[in-house]
Amino acid sequence: MTITFPRPLPEDIEFHVTRFEPERAVAASRSRNRVGNHSQVADPAWVVELTSLPLRYAGRMKTEAWVQSLRGGLRTALYWHRLSCYPAAHPGDGGVAVDPGNLVSVADGNVLSVNSVNAGLTLTPGDLIGIEATHRAVGMVTEVSGTGTSRSITIEPEPPTDVAVPGAVIRFVKPTLVMRLVPGSLSTPEVRTGFWTVNFTLRESR
Predict the structure, then answer these.
(1) Distance between CA 186 and CA 67 in Å, rounded?
(2) Structural domain boundaries of the chain?
(3) DSSP string, 89-122
(4) Given this structure, which CATH class describes domain 85-175?
(5) Secondary structure of 158-190 as H, E, C letters
(6) Tens of pLDDT along 169-180?
């Protein structure tokens, strides 16, 4: 079978997510009178740290082969957070959340005006949504309002301006990121006799 990239995680290997959060590059400096100056020096990027469940040797090598196929980050992976595939109000199969929305406009960098959603859609803070245009982005819902087929959704981190464009597709089920392996993050410790874990880190990319 031909391998294509971005490449999804192996479906038959279970992973424990030890960290999944947006990494912000914020510089802080102190000045007189206890005033702190903070500035964002780079765009935020999602980072996920993954640890497989303990594997026999064959499973370890199969999983390591998947990681090695990314060539240290030269090739890309597809990642969706398996614990947040669906909105909290629509667990299991997503229900009405399967229907995507359409991005109309963006205010203040992170307040999305979305229409064409299913009228039964319920979003709550902590849900993840995906934005798809020429590239992909994922945001965590911090506030939501609206009824019928329109919603105003505030997310963090603020999405890239070339992704959050009018007409972008808003997905509420399996919001997916293109990510790259963080060089040097792969490790395969033997956690008990005859069993190994495969640990690595992915960072949002394009």
Answers:
(1) 8
(2) 1-80+177-206, 85-175
(3) TSTTT-GGGGS-EEEEEEETTTEEEEES--TT--
(4) mainly beta
(5) CCCCCCCCCCCEEECCCCCEEEEECCCCCECCE
(6) 999 999 999 999
pTM value? 0.92
Indicate the SS3 state at residue 17: strand
pLDDT for the residue 34: 67
Measure Cα distances from 153 to 9, 96, 130, 158 in Å: 29, 17, 12, 12
- How far is residue 117 from each of residues 97, 125, 171, measured CA to CA in Å? 8, 17, 10
- A 10 A CB-CB count for 79 gives 23
Q: Chunk the chain into consecutive blocks of 10 residues (it has 206) and report each block's average pLDDT, rounded to whole numbers.
A: 92 94 84 73 92 98 97 97 93 90 98 97 97 97 97 97 97 97 98 98 96
Torsion, CA 142, CA 22, CA 164, CA 106, rounded to 10: 30
Residue 47 tokens read as 């980072």
Tokens 């957070």, residue located: 81
Architecture of domain 1-80+177-206: 2-Layer Sandwich (3.30)
Q: Whose CA is closest to 206, among 167, 177, 174?
A: 177
- Give bridge partners of residue 170 from the DSSP assignment: 101, 131
